[in-house]
Amino acid sequence: MELLYKVEDKPPVGTSILLAAQHLLAALGAIIAVPLVVGGVLGLSTEDMVVLVNAAMLVSGVVTIIQCRGVGSVGIRLPVVMGTSFTFVGVSIAIGFEHGVAGILGSALVASLVMIIGSFFMPMIRKLFPPIVTGTVVTLIGLSLIPVAVDWIAGGQVGSEGYASISNLIIGFFVLALVIALSQFGKGIFAASAVVMGIIVGFVICAALGLVDFIPVQQAALVALPSPLHFGLSFPISGIIGMSIAYLVTIIESTGDFLALSNVTNTKLTGKKLSRGILADGLGSALASIFSTTPFSSFSQNVGIVGMTGVASRYVVAITGAMLILAGLFPVLGALVVIIPLPVLGGAGLIMFAMIISAGVNILSTTAHTKRNSIIVAVGVGAGMAVTARPELLGNLPEFLKVILASGITTGSLVALFLNLLLPGREKAIEIDNAIEAENVAASEENQATA
């Protein structure tokens, strides 16, 4: 796709701040949701919940900047937004009931070594993801996020009060239509900032209609200082094992996000780059434990923003990291984002997540149309969506398998990966894919020379 700003471009400061706000709006709700869920289930006090949430925003900002800008051999140097991961919710709650928050954070700290050590083997792992597997994984990421956007448009979870009310649907689809119109027909900054403009207009309309609850902003503290080791650390063996499994799952999911991001930013993801990204992920999760919040991973929804707006500048997303740090230090700023009505976020989210599907289809279009490849895509996507649509399928499996397969993205990725290794004709498929890639590169160079 044609990019408005490439990875190394630096838009004007004012423009960059506006574009960075899009990523903040897309990510902040999910970043604070994980500590809120974990803390709520464990019955933590308001003071302890504030520590978890503020630390999540602060460390998210720091790790996002490291991923985007890079520090030595750490950081993928692509426009990646980092935040707390839902992969760790189940295992965190299980550990928390038995060992408290100290057990969660201590287990996560030790188990982060799985990701840190695993990062050094990413060049080998990268070879397991040819275009047919990569395209399947990226498509699954988008498909798995669509139900999230649909629930946002409807106003919450199925069964909640006002779910799918006419007013929610009108607001959600109005924002969706506005984002599409700005992206398709807008020029310059209007096209590039279509998401944030759609959300702002939707927010203003909702506020005018009295649909925005400003109480969280009034109750939010003005300043919140970091509280390292607020809960202490303990290291239960069972907790470390559970967290280690969750980190293995996160490696697969983050790899999928990075592959999707490399596609929408028109950059080649080498094994070395992938190693730097996974290493930043692991070190960021270790830092999260020390600063008293749950582990991290990359955010898929922000890949959709890059794909839709054509803004691939890593410097823009680094500014998002700075905004997250400010939100952690000044909770009232974060509260302003949190009160955005879900239908407004859903309208923008639907098109963002659908763009990830489009990126996956684009990758698959570069592969040979063979029966072998069709089976890999069909079974991989089918397995992933089966778990996403009917998680009850895993109900009778051993606990460690539930943790591994709970994400449809992970399940589909593993199925596609193993099918690619097991089905005959792999070497021939690699030759065909290499030939197709060479043709595409030659055509691209020819087009650039003509232009």
Concise structural overview:
With 451 residues, this protein is an all-alpha fold. The protein has 19 helices and two strands. The two termini are 15 Å apart.
Please, could you describe this protein's structure?
This protein has 451 residues and is an all-alpha fold. The chain has one domain (13-354). The protein is 73% helix and 1% strand. The protein is built from 19 helices and two strands. It has helices at residues 13-42, 46-69, 89-118, 122-126, 131-154, 166-185, 189-192, 194-208, 215-219, 237-264, 271-290, 301-309, 314-329, 331-338, 342-364, 371-389, 399-405, 408-422, 426-450, and strands at 82-84, 296-298. A two-stranded antiparallel ribbon has the order 1-2. The protein is globular, with a radius of gyration of 21 Å. The model has no long low-confidence stretch (mean pLDDT 90).
Write the layout of secondary structure elements.
Elements: H1 13-42, H2 46-69, E1 82-84, H3 89-118, H4 122-126, H5 131-154, H6 166-185, H7 189-192, H8 194-208, H9 215-219, H10 237-264, H11 271-290, E2 296-298, H12 301-309, H13 314-329, H14 331-338, H15 342-364, H16 371-389, H17 399-405, H18 408-422, H19 426-450
Helix pairs in contact: 1-2, 1-3, 1-8, 1-13, 2-11, 2-13, 3-10, 3-11, 5-10, 5-15, 5-16, 5-18, 6-8, 6-15, 8-15, 10-11, 10-17, 10-18, 12-15, 13-14, 16-18
